[in-house]
Design a protein that fits this description.
five-stranded antiparallel sheet; binds biotin
């Protein structure tokens, strides 16, 4: 009901009569007043003026599912959203929902995480109301070894979605860090529930530093606000990501990883330069050559042998 009342008040210049709203929604005037009070508690600034009615002055900066759904431009991604004020990690909640049989496309977002997870066992600082911390559940019909393409796809979607809102010089560092002036602004973590030859589901977790001050971040981190001084609407960025992601994902399912690779390579500046990659099986130094068909990094080592690297941390050495 609250959602329906909001839809009456959204984008209206003037006041909407309480009688009109109550009659259309089959509510008593008192019932309507109760809902208005609930909305105010959620942070909606609604004024009530006798003989004129109600007017929505301000929408709160919260990731409420009905705000995400409002004018969303996707067919399946984010249409069903699970919202939390605080979670240990959206990854764990999305994983449990995947195991419980939830469909592809559900979104789990939280205003804060107490144990946000990063790659390679690191943590992800998730300060309340400042950034975006969310996970998506996907059920691609792919072999587990092809899943890295989804990580690359996510990085492209995040980068394009931010750039649509604010034109800042972002780049992608393999495999999935989004950088701004060499500092990390967003990270992506992919977890896969699979058997050797069958993927049950994939959880893509995305964390973006948006309205953080520099003091809220680690020294190697940066946010849109700390860089540009501009506060950005988190919901707009989230909706942009869902749209870009769904477009790339749908293309990927039909045509394979060609487009993702092309776009990803456009935003990465390592090609032809010397790199050092530290992975689970040691460190490889050489020239960054290309991505292979599955999204692995190809590096020509100092002996001239081309090595295929699936995971690790990369640094440019020259
Ligand atoms: C990395 O760069 O190391 C990956 C960071 C991923 C952080 C996001 S925030 C939302 C989701 N929930 C988590 O616990 N981690 C991911």
């Amino acid at each position: 009901m609250n959602e329906k009342i909001l839809n009456f008040l959204r984008d209206k210049e003037g006041y909407t009569s309480g009688q009109d709203i109550a009659e259309s929604l089959n509510l008593s005037r008192q019932g309507l007043w109760k809902h208005i009070q609930e909305l105010r508690k959620l942070g909606y600034d609604i004024v009530a003026v006798p003989h004129l009615g109600y007017k929505l002055l301000k929408i709160p900066d919260r990731l409420y599912p009905w705000e995400i759904k409002e004018n969303i431009q996707t067919d399946f991604l984010g249409k069903k959203a699970f919202y939390f004020d605080s979670l240990s990690s959206t990854m764990d909640k999305a994983w449990a929902l995947g195991q419980a049989g939830q469909p592809e496309g559900i979104l789990v977002c939280s205003e804060k995480q107490t144990q946000g997870k990063g790659r390679l066992g690191r943590s992800w600082i998730s300060k309340k109301y400042k950034g975006l911390y969310f996970s998506l559940l996907l059920r691609p019909n792919l072999l587990p070894c092809k899943i890295s393409c989804i990580t690359l796809l996510s990085a492209v979607a995040v980068l394009k979605a931010i750039k649509k809102e604010i034109n800042i010089p972002l780049s992608i560092k393999w495999p999935n860090d989004i950088l701004l002036e060499g500092k990390k602004i967003a990270g992506i973590l992919t977890e896969v529930n699979a058997e050797q030859d069958r993927t049950h589901f994939v959880i893509v977790g995305i964390g973006i530093n948006i309205n953080h001050s520099q003091k809220d971040l680690i020294p190697e981190g940066i946010s849109i606000f700390s860089y540009s001084g501009k506060k950005i609407d988190r919901i707009t960025i989230l909706k942009n990501i869902l749209k870009e992601f769904e477009l790339l994902y749908s293309d990927f399912k039909v045509n394979g990883p060609q487009k993702i690779k092309q776009e990803w390579k456009k935003f990465s500046y390592i090609w032809g330069s010397k790199v050092r990659v530290s992975g689970v099986s040691g460190t490889i130094e050489g020239e960054a050559l290309d991505l292979d068909a599955d999204g692995a990094l190809l590096v020509r080592n100092n002996l001239g042998i081309i090595e295929k690297i699936i995971a690790g941390d990369i640094a440019q050495t020259e």
